[in-house]
């Protein structure tokens, strides 16, 4: 089933009885060429690009829950390429370009909206830092415009510009930044991978990884043992547990990050806005809800919910920045499990076990990376060579100290990102 | 989440600074080698369940505290002064 305007018109006129399921629900086969553990955004896009770019279709994606039920359905949907450091900069640039062709590529409306992203600054020092970041983005071939206070006012007239503690000096405007419908990204990749022959196996939790003579031979699951020549671990917050099945300890500590959404409102916030001094960022979904969040709770957690101090802090920051949202009612809040690395940058690499590959450490920034991560991880799994846009994401950078990518400049230590 | 300081009693989580896994107390010898230092600084068990981590009662008595805690439920099970536990037992 292929989506088209004509098809939608026809179905609309005939009672929408012709739609079929977006993907099959196959039982696992006894053996695959490649198994991808984790049916989140990154795992699904990995399978899709393995099929699209490398002609590999004897692939299973194993998901312990259901497609779209993990972090890919629990994030704040922001898509951007505004990283500063070499290593990160070219990767997110690559990912954003994939986003820009994604809907045609997948034949699926992921509601990618390049509404522009504005990072506000509140001091001369911050202005210098953002000017430097903007130059790095332009050098990478992406877009960045340094706005002064009046420039910000033209875009965001509703902010409190005269705040005594954090007056707004300006902002770094990234016009190609924006949002996408997170569930649709999972569904779009799932459907596109399935159409190329990938088996998406849900309710299938991996319980063990079989290794013989230093080489991976398959996995054990709640739906039986499955053999495979290559296995990729793409399980975000659960990376520590799955890697332990292969005898590995990772430079990962899982933390909780909370997010919030209000009742649906008329359009009021046109951009993605971040308030660096208050650890607050916000956008408005196409349904009208204000989607916003702040910083980590800052302790190791798998609870998928946070504590009230961070809730209070986020609400305070929001009210400081844009007092107009004060009467909006918060509908829901939730927490995601973030796989935090010491330097705040991700890992796409081989492991010491032949045929076992690792994709993790996306911290609180994994959603925008979904296309690039899958694209680069598929390249690594298919060719055993690093993709050119992901050469910096090495696992051994922590052991050697070479190539650490600490965007925040706070130090490569677990509790600082 | 409320944390019990062995000196001050049960307090709001906001009074405490989170350092990370209690492995921080098990500092290797300076010449222990690259692998030992990598394990100490970077690698983590990262358990889903009971864990022991190191907090400082920053806004209270300043004591360093080893908190035994469940990362799935946020239940705080036990706490003890790091000074009483000693360096070797940290891991």
UniProtKB/TrEMBL annotation, chain A:
It is found in: Cytoplasm. Keywords: Cytoplasm, FAD, Flavoprotein, FMN, Nucleotide-binding, Oxidoreductase. The keyword Cytoplasm applies. Its EC number is 1.5.3.24. Residues 34-78 form the Rhodanese domain. It catalyses: sarcosine + (6S)-5,6,7,8-tetrahydrofolate + O2 = (6R)-5,10-methylene-5,6,7,8-tetrahydrofolate + glycine + H2O2; sarcosine + O2 + H2O = formaldehyde + glycine + H2O2. InterPro entries: FAD-dep_OxRdtase, FAD/NAD-bd_sf, Rhodanese-like_dom, SoxB. Its cofactor is FMN; FAD. Pfam families: DAO. SUPFAM superfamilies: FAD-linked reductases, C-terminal domain, FAD/NAD(P)-binding domain. It is an enzyme of class 1 (oxidoreductase). The keyword Iron-sulfur does not apply. Belongs to the SoxB family. This is Sarcosine oxidase subunit beta.
Automatic annotation (TrEMBL), chain B:
It holds the Pfam family SoxD. It comes from the Bacteria. This is Sarcosine oxidase subunit delta. It comes from Sedimentitalea xiamensis. The lineage of its organism: Bacteria, Pseudomonadati, Pseudomonadota, Alphaproteobacteria, Rhodobacterales.
């Amino acid at each position: 089933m292929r989506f088209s305007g004509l098809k939608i018109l026809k179905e609309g006129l005939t009672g929408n009885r012709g739609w079929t399921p977006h993907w099959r629900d196959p039982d696992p086969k006894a053996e695959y060429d490649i198994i991808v553990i984790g049916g989140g955004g990154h795992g699904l896009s990995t399978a899709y690009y393995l099929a699209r770019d490398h002609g590999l279709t004897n692939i299973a994606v194993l998901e312990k829950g259901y497609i779209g039920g993990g972090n890919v359905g629990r994030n704040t949907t922001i898509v951007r390429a505004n990283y500063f450091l070499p290593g990160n900069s070219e990767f997110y640039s690559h990912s954003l370009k994939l986003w820009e062709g994604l809907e045609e590529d997948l034949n699926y409306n992921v509601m990618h909206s390049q509404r522009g992203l504005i990072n506000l600054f509140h001091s001369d020092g911050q202005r210098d830092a953002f000017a430097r970041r903007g130059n790095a983005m332009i050098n990478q071939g992406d877009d960045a415009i340094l706005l002064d206070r009046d420039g910000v006012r033209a875009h965001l007239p509703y902010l409190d510009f005269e705040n005594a503690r954090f007056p707004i000096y300006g902002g770094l405007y990234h016009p190609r930044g924006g949002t996408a419908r997170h569930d649709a990204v999972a569904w779009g990749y799932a459907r596109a991978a399935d159409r190329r022959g990938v088996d998406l196996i849900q309710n299938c939790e991996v319980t063990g990884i079989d290794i013989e003579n230093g080489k991976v031979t398959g996995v054990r699951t709640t739906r039986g043992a499955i053999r495979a020549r290559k296995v990729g671990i793409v399980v975000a917050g659960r990376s520590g547990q799955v890697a332990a099945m292969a005898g590995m300890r990772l430079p990962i500590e899982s933390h909780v990050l909370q997010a919030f959404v209000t009742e649906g409102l008329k359009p009021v916030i046109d951009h993605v806005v971040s308030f660096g001094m208050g650890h607050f960022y916000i956008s408005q979904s196409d349904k009208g809800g204000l989607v916003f969040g702040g910083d980590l709770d800052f302790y190791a957690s798998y609870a998928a919910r946070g504590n009230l101090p961070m809730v209070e802090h986020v609400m305070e920051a929001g009210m400081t920045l844009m007092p107009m949202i004060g009467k909006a009612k918060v509908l829901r809040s939730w927490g995601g499990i973030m796989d935090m690395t010491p330097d705040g940058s991700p890992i796409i690499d081989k492991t010491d076990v032949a045929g076992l590959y690792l994709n993790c450490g996306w911290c609180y920034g994994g959603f925008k990376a979904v296309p690039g991560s899958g694209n680069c991880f598929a390249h690594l799994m298919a060719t055993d060579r690093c993709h050119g846009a992901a050469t910096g994401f090495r696992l051994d950078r922590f052991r050697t100290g070479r190539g650490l990518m600490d965007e925040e400049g706070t130090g490569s230590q677990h509790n600082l990102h | 989440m409320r944390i019990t300081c062995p000196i001050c009693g049960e307090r709001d989580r906001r009074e405490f600074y989170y350092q990370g896994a209690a492995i921080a107390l098990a500092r290797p010898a300076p010449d222990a080698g690259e692998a030992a230092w990598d394990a100490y600084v970077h690698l983590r068990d990262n358990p889903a369940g009971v864990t022991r981590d190191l907090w400082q009662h920053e806004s209270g008595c300043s004591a360093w505290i080893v908190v035994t805690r469940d990362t799935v439920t946020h239940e705080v099970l036990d706490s003890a002064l790091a000074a009483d536990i000693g360096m070797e037992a940290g891991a």
